[in-house]
What does this fold into?
Amino acid sequence: MHTVERPTPPPPPLPRTAMLVLLAIGPEERHGYAIMAEVARITDGATRLGPGGVYTTIHRLVEDGLIEETDERPDPELDDQRRRYYRLTAIGRAVAAAEVRRMETIVRATRPWALEAAG
Amino acid sequence: MRRADASPARIYRRLLALYPAEFRARYADKMVQLFGDQLWDARLGDARGGTVRTWLRALGDLAVTAASERARRHRTVAHSLAGPPSATSRMLGLVGILGGLVLVAAFLPNLPWTRELFQLRLVLFNAGASAIVLAVHRRQASASPRASLAAAVPAILANTWYLAMVILSIGRPQPPEGDPEFRLVMFFAGVALWWADATFGLVTWRIGVVARWGALAIAIGSILAFTGMDRLELVRGELAWIFIPASLAGIALNGLGWILLGIDVAFRRRRAPVTPCQTE
It folds into this structure.
């Protein structure tokens, strides 16, 4: 029987904080403090998460299989043993890519008039 | 290694009690460490009042995220318990619906059988209420064991006590001619009944596992019904014209609540799964 293959639909958008944490982890392995600092950096200081914001979001992303905890440390000599590192899973990378594409589309479509309107 | 001062870390750790226990067990140490790092940064920074600002931010962050984590846990629990009920639960639910219907039907005007079968009505109602409490407890015991027990045990005991009093009152002269001592025990059984039903409704409504509006109706109905207790006539005085209708409305509302819970327990179907991130 002939079947028509349909393209896989993009995953549904993540809540804003979850998206920022996912993008902040990026290709690295990061612990809570590094994630918090990276979120502040990529948002130019506009979003500053607290411990609750960081870890409730990590908890949800771990449960959804988008990130995972890792025992490996980039440099065990220099680091606190109690720290836990997180990295993106394959699904997490796909969702992060979908989020970036979504933002790109919005920026491409609105940039000309929005920046002009803002002067 | 950066370390928070012992006392701020200790205070912050205590505040983490606002989060659900399983979340705390997994993330409390990491959160305390991260808070310590933030305080350290604030002290090293040039800005004045950095420590106070860090504390204020942490408190705001804690209030918002603890509330959302608890709400999310309730949604997850509600989802995990959203499967179809067992045959026993369905039976208990049907008994509950019958009990509630009988209670509400008693308010239909001028139906002779509701007077003649007064005790039978109360027996059916109390048996129905106990059946619903048992069915609801079976459903939510695994999710909130302490809350569920605190709600179910008093409700079942009070309903059983009242049921026993109703059965004992069969064949005795009805008020106001009845034995004053028996009436006093009956009065306290009634107080216990409305109190326990109200507690059950309020706790069940808060847990949100079963039909919320049914549980809320039971809670409000029980509180209103309490105002109609015969011994309260001594303190009601001239306000009887408010208290009597309020109590009747309360009893009807209570019956309606049991019917709603009974329908929820007996006829619930499985719901579609919802992923946590999508529920925010």
Summary: Chain B has two domains: 6-78, 85-267. Residues 6-78 of chain B form one domain. The two ends of chain B are 36 Å apart (CA to CA).
